[in-house]
Specification:
- The structure is a single chain.
- The protein is an alpha/beta fold.
- It has one domain: Lysozyme-like (3-Layer(aba) Sandwich).
- The chain has helices spanning about 35-45, 100-115, 145-155, 165-175; strands spanning about 1-5, 20-30, 55-60, 65, 85-90, 120-125.
- α2 (about 100-115) crosses α3 and α2 packs antiparallel against α4.
- Bound molecules: zinc ion.
Length: about 180
């Protein structure tokens, strides 16, 4: 289930849900949950202008928090802000693996959102996406979060769902698509 903290993303610019084609995976070590991460961005406006950078935050214990509605453009990945759903796992995956609970939750999130996006959904790490970072040396989420394993797993389980049914299913799990 997804915890609704989408009030944290109020004020982020809107986008059409039809623009979404990608799930972009990040690491974040500046805060242990969505509230703390949103506060970090607010206090350090050099990164995003102060706005919450991610739509989804997955805590170390596997808790899934949604920090802005999917019809908002979370500013975590420059060139991939419009087309991507920004999913951040708490931790530094240059140094350690995600926890078992976190990995399981990340697989669930990618499967759920890929079902909504459709059979052509793309799952990419932040710095795998060209132009998604201002820093050419940035490594996100890091080699210890295995993007190929994640893609393989979601690919194996990916099924085609009609758009409205997929959305209804995601909403039943707690995902928020639209918020004014
Ligand atoms: Zn990132």
């Amino acid at each position: 289930m997804v915890t609704d903290l989408t009030e944290l993303g109020q004020g982020l610019p809107p986008r059409a849900l039809s623009m979404i084609t990608h799930i972009i995976v990040h690491r974040i070590e500046d805060g242990e949950d969505a509230r703390a991460v949103a506060q970090f961005f607010k206090s350090n406006p050099q990164w995003t202008g102060g706005g919450m950078g991610y739509a989804i935050v997955i805590k170390r214990d596997g808790t899934i928090e949604q920090a802005c509605a999917l019809n908002r453009r979370a500013p975590g990945a420059r060139a991939a802000n419009g087309c991507g759903i920004q999913v951040a796992c708490v931790g530094d995956f240059r140094k350690h693996e995600p926890t078992v609970s976190q990995w399981g939750a990340l697989c669930d999130v990618c499967e759920d959102l890929a079902t909504f996006i459709g059979p052509n959904a793309k799952i990419m790490g932040h710095t795998e996406f060209p132009g998604a970072s201002a820093d050419p040396n940035k490594v996100c989420p890091g080699p210890l979060l295995d993007m190929n394993a994640l893609r393989d797993l979601v690919e194996d389980t990916k099924v085609y769902w009609p758009k409205t049914l997929a959305r209804t299913r995601c909403e039943a799990l707690g995902y928020v698509f639209e918020r004014k």
